[in-house]
Task: structure prediction
Amino acid sequence: MEAPARVDQVLSRSRAQLERRLELGDGMALALWRNAHDSPRYVQPGHHTLSVYLQGGQGTRALGMPGEGSPGCHCVLPAEHESRWQVGSGQRFLHLYCSGLSWAERVVRLLDAEPRALSLGLRLFAQDATLRHWGQAVAALDWAAPEARLQAEALAHQALDRLLLEAATPAQRQGAQRPRGGLSAAARRQLLAFLEAHLDAPNEALSLAALAARVHLSEFHFARMFRVSMGCSVHEWLAAARRRRAVQLVRQGRLPLAEVARRCGYANPSHLSRTLRGSLGLSPRELRRLGPP
Result:
């Protein structure tokens, strides 16, 4: 009998090709794969996996189970499940991995329930427009960019919260989705001042967990309350704040672009240039010609 192994370990020993991987912290990770004409087997991987087919999937089956893959469908593979697969023609798919501990903590803080009372079931080739668009949005991000990493983390939390609420009973969902107010005025001022002062901070310092801890909230409730207060997600606010600061510094013309990029949390001057051109339609050189704001 095969020994238990993580899904990514199984795929790394198969015909599958890893395009890129992003560690999100808190027991979560993303991976973008390609595979064709393969036969992987998963044996109690020890973590949950959400798999979204981005391209292809036809002819892919879990042996002994109904259905087959197609673009846009998704599978949920629980930590303790076992399955053997027949992979058809070329396909590209996104994986979100969630550790058992991360899932248990999510159950407790979101539903105030015992994790053992709520299990994640095996789901194969399901159709969900929200998760289809989720997979496309995550795959389209530049995972090397600081603000994109924060956005990917927020999107990962959204997907896992969705899976959890789908698995919950109606009474549990009602309790989790009860409307709540936004951040208090003091918490909002404290948080926004911190973000403005740390636009150049490393990703870990601006993760949802780190920001939620600063205002003594769970990640789930912090994300919801921030959106109620600010009308956008944390990553959207942070990306906009970085762009504003970058435009200001570029137009002042006193700093080299490398220093502007560093102060605003961009990976390098090229990343800064792509962001400005994408949002404003102007290169840093064109912005600099405009002079100070």
In short: Residues 146-167 form the longest helix (22 residues).
